[in-house]
Write a structure and sequence with these properties.
Layout lengths: L1 H35 L2 H12 L8 H16 L4 E13 L4 E7 L3 E5 L1 E3 L11 E8 L2 H12 L3 E4 L10 H8 L1 H11 L5 E5 L25 E4 L1 H13 L4 E6 L2 E15 L4 E11 L9 H20 L6 E8 L7 H12 L3 E7 L7 E7 L2 H8 L2 H4 L6 E4 L15 E7 L4 H4 L12 H20 L3
Length: 456
Amino acid sequence: MKKSVAIISFLSLLVNLYAQSQDSVIIRRIFDEALTSRAAYENLRYLCKNTKGRICGSPQAAEAVEFTSQVMLDMELDSVYLQELMVKRWVRGMNEEAYVISSLFGFHELTISGLGTSVGTGEKGIIGKVLEVQTFDDLEKLGTENIKGKLVFFNRPMDPTLINTFAAYGGAADQRTRGASEAARYGAIGMVIRSLTTALDDFPHTGVMYYEEGIPKIPAVSVSTIDAEQLSRLLSGDPDLHLHIISNCKNLDEVTSHNVVGELKGTVYPDQIITIGGHLDAWDTGEGAHDDGTGCIHAIEAVRLLKDLGIQPKRTIRAVMFMDEEIAQRGAKKYAELARENNEKHYAAIESDRGGLTPVGFGFTAAEERMEGFLQLKEYFKPYGITEFVRGGGGADIGPLREFGATLISFIPEMQRYFDYHHSPNDTFEQVNIRELQLGCAAIAALVYLIDKYDL
């Protein structure tokens, strides 16, 4: 009896080892195809160079919708379609200028960028004395009597001691999102923030900001980190200096836009959906390469790899180009709304919105009984240097799918350079390395293959 049990256990082990070896061969084929094809890189080139400035509601965003849908039609996927939605329409305007006027140091021009959804200053601009602060508590201590009629300058950098740059970004982003209303609460006439980047450069980094109901709307701009440090030095020598800001941004009526969806139908469970997504919109000052052109191309290329290699998934695989992640996440909300209306079954969702740098792993938010299976997948990826399989995954666009019980997964690339590009004119196609992009596409395709095959 004991001998029979031992034989059965040994045979089971052999079967498992054989299956693992077969999976490793398929994963190797996925990586080989990705690393020898230029399809992803050339698609990214077109997206960046021909739809630059594709903030939601813009003509460029509409062109990006047409391009990505055509790419997936040319791939002959089982279905390609658009999901219509309404988006906010914010435009920057033609003129953004900032000048330091000091009786001690003279005249200095600063490099600025209006923050998304901010009101403009008008043609003549605004002029005022500048108060440098770090936190909202500083505003409370200064009070209305010291702030009214002035410009507030938030100069709190992303914490350079944090190795996780996304944590550093999260710790500083309140200045951008809420700073204008907090300053206006005490009578400020405008707000300037230090760009949210770990780099010391002359690229002003934009991003969305929000006005609080019942508080005056004041113009809000970012200043490059080099000029933030210069402004701080000048203020320390001349607290009475003035800053003149001109911006012409404005909010217009909402317009129609779209998510773009391409599907590879499942052969066993076609009603179960694995979503791979990135967001198609990007800030208007750059080409949106790392944020989030690479995420969109990751999704498209992962589906292409599975299809072209003849890997037939059991479940339906969707590549989704979400619209309006940067301002109001209307695309994510519409995707979830339609999933609810259509009674869809969402099995898993992977979001790529951390750039196209070297892949290092994935984060997972799943039911505890499924988590161990996900974490063990790293054994398949070790040959490719992808070893960070951790708890905690998701993203702004796939977050709403949690209500359907879907496992939420974050693609995790190397993070130290990402905020050099994020929301800035520096986010261009030239900043993406072809090999890093290809490795990311392969990693996502391989993960989808394993999740689907083993019902994880």
